[in-house]
Specification:
With 211 residues, the chain is α/β, with parallel strands linked by helices. The protein has one domain: 3-Layer(aba) Sandwich (Pyruvate-ferredoxin Oxidoreductase, domain 3). The protein is built from eight helices and six strands; from the N terminus they run H-E-H-E-E-E-E-H-E-H-H-H-H-H. It has a six-stranded mixed beta sheet, with helices on one face. Helix 4 crosses helix 5 and helix 6 packs antiparallel against helix 7. The chain is globular, with a radius of gyration of 16 Å. It starts with a helix and ends with a helix.
Length: 211
Amino acid sequence: MEQTLADRTAASASQPARLTEIRIHGRGGQGNIVAAYVLAQAAFEQGRFAQAFPSFGPERRGAPVSSYVRLANRAIQRHCQVLSPDFLIIQSQGLLHVAGLTAGLKPDGGILINSARELPELEAEAADSLEGRNVIVFGADALATEILGKPLPNTALLAAFLALTGLLPLDALEKALARRFKDETLERNLALVRAAASEVPAGLWRVAAHA
C-alpha cells in the first residue's frame, strides 16, 4: 500500500532532520530532467520526501541543462535552486570546460562524472579544479550503449550514484523506472541499473550522504 503525505510526515516526525541536495548537469537530449524526476520518484517509493525541478528555460538538444533534486525525511521547506549541493552528477564530460560547474559544492561533496577518460585527463582540462575533490569517473555512455543500444546515461548514473551513497536502495530506483517504462524498455533499464551499480565502489560516499 502506498504511503500518503500524512503517513510520511507522521513516520518522520521523530527522526533527525536530514536534507540531501543534488545538482545534475547535462545536455539537452541526455535525459537530464527525467533523471531528476526518476530520482525523486525513487525517494517517494521509500516513503521519503523529495523535490525535483529543472533550471529555468527550455531544454534544447545539446544545450547545457541543469536539474535539481532534494531528498529528505521531513517535508521540505526550501524551494530555491540548489546552490550548495552535497553531490553533483555530470552527464557530459564536455561541461567540465564550463567555469562555475562545481560552484557551491560542499567540501566533502561528491562528483560523479560520465566519461570514458581517466580522471587525470579530466582534471587537466576542467575549468574548475577537481584536485582534492571526491570524484568518481564512470563510463555510463558505453554501458548504456551496450545494454540499451544508445548512449543515454541517466539511468546508469542514477544507479551508480545510489550505489555510491546508499541514499536509497536500488529496488526503489527500479520501482520508479517501472512507473515510467514497460516491457522490453523496462527490462533493459533494469539490467542497466544492476550493471551500473556493480561498476562503482559500493558505499564509498555513504558517510557524506548520511552526515
